[in-house]
Structures are given as C-alpha cells and as structure tokens.
Specification:
2 copies of one chain form a homodimer.
Chain A: E1 4-11, E2 24-31, E3 38-47, H1 51-55, E4 76-83, E5 93-96, E6 103-107, E7 112-114, H2 130-143, E8 150-153, H3 159-170, E9 174-179, H4 182-190, E10 195-198, H5 204-211, E11 216-220, H6 225-232, E12 235-243, E13 257-259, H7 262-271, E14 275-278, H8 285-302, E15 309-313, H9 318-326, E16 333-337
Parallel strand pairs in A: 8-9, 8-11, 9-10, 11-12, 12-14, 15-16
Antiparallel strand pairs in A: 1-2, 3-4, 3-6, 3-16, 4-5, 5-7
Pfam families (chains A, B): ADH_N_2, ADH_zinc_N
InterPro entries (chains A, B): ADH-like_C, ADH_N_2, ER, GroES-like_sf, MDR_fam, NAD(P)-bd_dom_sf
GO molecular function (chains A, B): oxidoreductase activity, acting on the CH-CH group of donors, NAD or NADP as acceptor
Chain lengths: ~350, ~350
C-alpha cells in the first residue's frame, strides 16, 4: 500500500502568556495503514476553541495538559480515505478528535458519521456541535432564563455567545450581547439581540446600564476580566451565572495584584443570593444531548438561531488564527480549512 | 393603667470595623398601652447573630440597614404581659422580633406562640429556630450531601455550623468541623463530628488535608477569610458551596490589597464545575419549613442533633457579648437573658 504523510503541529513548549510560533513545531510523519477496526482520515476542517489554551498549560484544569511533543488537540471534520472497519466506508464524512494535523489513523468507534444532506458539515464543529451544545445546556440547565428576564452574554459574537443570546430570545428573555467592536455588535443586532454593547467603548459601563434597565438575571460567563466585573454590578437578586470560560484570563502568567476582589464578590454572592456554577459541556450530554439534536437543527433551519463562520485556509495558519481567537479577532466560529471540502 | 418602661439599646453611629460601646446608646422610653390587636411583651431571651453586623452598615446587603436611632434588631422570646388581641393571652410565651430592649408593644400577628412543653423556649432562637433552619435548608437544598461524601463546615461550634455537621451525618456524609480552639473542637467531637480541626493551629492546612482524604464535596460557608481559602483547595469536582455568611469579613473596612484572588477562584469554579450559591434562609421557608418543623424536633429529641447555648445575663451586656460573637468567643448559640425565665 501507499504510505500517507501527515503534517502535524505539535506543542514544543508551554507558552508563557500568549502562545507564539516558538511554542510549536511542525513535523511530517508517515502514518501506518489502518489496523483492524481503524480508519485513515483526511482532515477537512479543524475547530479552534479557547479551551485549547488550557491544554497548553500545566496549571490545574478540567483536563490533563498536553505533553510536550503531543499533536495539539482539536475537534475535526474529516473524510475517510481508507477503512479497515465495517463501521465506516471510504468517502464517509465524520466528526473526529484528531487535532492539528492533516491526516490521522484512529479507531472508527471514535468517529461519528455526519450526513452532509442534513446541514453543512462545518456546523458539526459550531452551532450544531460542541459550542452550540455548550450554549444550549449551560443556558437552559444553569441559567434557566424565564420570560421577561434579562440574559447578558459576553464574547457574544463567538459561536457559544451568539447561540446563548438567540436561545435566550427563543425562551422569551431579553438578550444583551457584549462584544468587541462595531462589526461584532452589528452582527449581534442582525442575529436579533435586543441590545449589543461594545466593551471597547469608553461609555461601556453606562451603555450596559442603559441596556439592562431591569438589571441582569442571567450572566453567561465566558470572558472574565473587566467585562465580568461590570456585569456583576448589574446582577439582580437570585441571578444565575453559568461559568463556561474565562478567555480574558487564559494568558495570565501570574495572579494580578492590587485589590483583592474575592471578598467583595463573595459578599455579593451572599447579599444577592447568586448562583455561580462552573461547567464543562460533557456533564450535560446524558441529560440534554438528545433534546439538543432535536431542537437546535430545527432552530437553525427556521432561522431562529443564526451563525457565522470565520474560515482560515491552511493548517500552516492555525497558530496565527489561534492567537487571533485569544484576542477576539475572529468573527463567528473559527475554523481552519485543512483540506479540500468535498462537493456533495 | 400603669405605664411600662422599656430599656432600649439603639444604634447611634455606624461602626467602623468592630462595633464599640460608642456606637450605641441606651435609653429608657415609656411604652403606650397596647392598642387594638396589639400585645405588650416582656423580653426573656434576645438572640445575638452575626447578620446583625450587616444591619449596622450602609453597605449593600440583603436587608435595609438600621437607621441611626433605631433599636437594634433581633429575634426574641417574650412573655405576653398585656394583651388587646384575642390571639394572645397574658402569660403566653411567644417568638417575636423586638430587638435589643426589655419590653415592646407589637401587633400580635407578628408573634408566634411557643409551647414550653414541646422544648425549652430558648431553642426557638437556636436549634429549632432560625439558625437551625438555616443549617437545614442550606445544607439539604444547596449542599445536597450524599452518603459517603465529605461535608466541611466552619464556625462549626456555632448554632448553624453544629447543626450542619450533625444533619450531614444523619444523611450519611462524613462531617468535618472547623472551629477556633481546643474547647470548641472537643464540643464537635462530642456532637459526633468525624473530625474537628482547630483553625488557630499552625498545622491547620495539614490537619484539614488529613481530615479530608477524599477531598471535600460540600463546603458550608459561613466564615470566609483564610479558613475558606484553605477549604477551597480541597474541593472535589462538582463540589457545592452554600454561602450562608462571611463573618470573618463583616468588620472589614476596606477591600484588602495584595493578590487579587478572584480570577483564580473563578478558574477553580470553572475547572472543578463548582456550585457557589448564596442564600438567606427566608427563601426556603415556603419549601422547607414544614419538613424542618417535623424533622428537627425529632432529631433533637433522639439526640441525633445536639446543641449548646451560651447565655449572657442582662441586656446591658449585649454589646460586649456581640463583640465576642464577632471574634468567636461564644461556645454555642449566644443568647442574652434579658428577663426572668418563667418556671413551667
């Protein structure tokens, strides 16, 4: 048989602060033929997500860190190019977790078949995939928005945030999105958010107050930092804070000094009977995945949930794109198109 | 009719830090006769509780602050000495909210009749009253201890903490109490806690680790400060933190400087899928009060929940006793015996 070469991006050092090209190495490896039960995959789309920064650190997190020399992790949409499994056929499009590489050999059971007739295959990495599910489960299970309540979400132009706001509206709540810059705010208005606020504006705090005249009942937290501090001031009694991510802090190299805000925050938790709940979407798969796969595709087809994708061409541009993700440069779900998209 | 004089302790200035005698004034007022529907009460027991410190501050809290000149608030057990209501008779023992004074005239509907045959009347201010209910509802509704889990509570020798640990054991969990000094720790062992740890010991952190070999699943927070910081390090994934009080911070006059611990705490909330939930016991009255009044007296009669009271004689000693409460000097539920206890 012909051997297949895979281009891989591996972690070569744990980044201090923002990851740089020096923290990665690109290598080419010869892949073996798929063994019994395995498939050879060609990567079409690689998803870039903020959680990856956590894997590049040895700090305690919800998942083990990458070892130096590991291929950087990531969810992918791939085409099966060789199969030694009766579960998958050559030409199948699958969801896999093969990371930052052009090809991989994996156990066929670690793939999920996608039907390109159902939805564009890239959506399995975004609105119909992990980010969409994160929004759906975290908002509905922890946030529990009620009709007439106000839901605030930051990074609202991202794939999680934009779904949070749109699902909040489906549930009858008022959706206020926070994003960086006028282009993202315009996108939020197009998505039907009741208000869109630019956190880079000097009038941010006033704009937030004006957009939340009845206070805030749900703050879907995926940012942290000064944006979170401003929203916390607006929280109502019994407000809920699903804590999904803290991207503003992901590159922090040391605990910030100055005022210790923890005692004040805890006093606020007490005085306003707040619920603060960290979560990783996996937790809710058993309870919410079936409903998600039933409701979310319908909402997307109906136009109740819209999305945009930001597609970067070529695996060699993944590092630059990932840096941009951590500084909010992308508009919508960030994907790397690693290989040709099949015509269907 | 004869007029009745009430000795009252009123707030004369908002304390900076620890309240002092200068923040209060003692005055004698002539009370009117009870009007239609009212009763004249003679205070027997006054309850002293940490929440009162919050009422002596204009900082945002869950209840409006006292105005300067107001009688300091507090729950009391009183005897009805005159009645213009068909709801209450002279000689009735009632639970009321008449505060730091020897007598008061109140609407009879704002009293609850106690039956001295059921339990010592002082317990209506402690294990069978608000502190006991706080422990019961906060632990069971937010903490949700499961058999085999580890529950940690600080201020464990206090009326809330001691009930938390003992209810945790009833539910099959392991109870670890934190308290200040060997006398309190000895009390916790007598109450059946699985471990009692002295936070004043230089080996506190090591002792805590040794007492929680499987980590901590529920941390019932009523202290804050360095004790809380040590427990947070031991929290397991999916741990629950009912936030009931933060007595270590109640006298803080400014936000502490140094390291800002909030970002690190939020990262921990995220990485361990923690639930942090502030609460005031009132919230759970509609859902849990009936069960509390059914279960708790039974547990007390059975000896499954034990309690101690720390009784200070004379309203004139309330200020000193309250200072002692804020620094942990009392052992068990702190009460002021304001007037003679009727013999039954």
């Amino acid at each position: 048989m012909t051997t297949t070469e895979s281009q891989q991006i591996r972690l070569s050092s744990y980044p201090e602060g923002m990851p740089t090209h020096d923290d990665f190495e690109t290598v080419a490896v010869e892949l073996p033929d798929p063994g019994e039960g395995e498939v050879l995959l060609r990567t079409i789309y690689l998803s870039l997500d903020p959680y990856m920064r956590g894997r590049m650190s040895t700090a305690k997190s919800y998942a083990a860190p990458l070892e130096l020399g590991d291929v950087v992790v990531g969810q992918t949409v791939c085409e099966v190019v060789a199969s030694a499994s009766d579960r998958r056929s050559v030409g199948d499009i699958v969801l896999a977790y093969t990371g930052w590489q052009t090809h991989a050999v994996v156990d066929a059971r670690h793939t999920r078949r996608l039907d390109p007739a159902d939805a564009p295959i890239s959506t399995a990495l975004g609105v119909l995939g992990m980010p969409g599910f994160t929004a759906y489960a975290g908002l509905l299970e922890i946030g529990r928005p009620q009709p007439g309540e106000t839901v605030v979400v930051a990074a609202a132009a991202g794939p999680v945030g934009s779904a949070v706001g749109q699902i909040a509206r489906i549930k009858g709540a008022r959706a206020v999105g926070i994003a960086g810059g006028p282009e993202k705010c315009e996108l939020l208005r197009r998505f039907g958010f009741d208000a869109a606020i630019d956190h880079r504006s000097p009038s941010f705090a006033d704009d937030l107050a004006a957009a939340t005249p009845d206070g805030v009942d749900v703050y879907f937290e995926n940012v942290g930092g000064p944006v979170a501090a401003a929203v916390v001031k607006r929280l109502n009694k019994f407000a809920r804070i699903p804590v999904c991510g803290l991207v503003a802090d992901y590159n922090a190299t040391a605990a910030p000094t100055g005022i210790d805000r923890l005692p004040g925050f805890m006093r606020r938790v007490l005085s306003s009977s707040l619920t603060v709940r960290g979560f990783i979407q996996d937790e809710f798969r058993p309870t919410h995945e079936a409903a998600f796969h039933e409701e979310m595709p319908r909402w997307v087809r109906d136009g109740a949930v819209q999305y945009v994708e930001d597609v970067v061409d070529g695996l060699e541009n993944a590092i630059d794109a990932f840096q941009g993700l951590l500084t909010g440069k992308n508009l919508g779900k960030l994907l790397v198109r690693v290989g040709e998209v099949p015509t269907t």
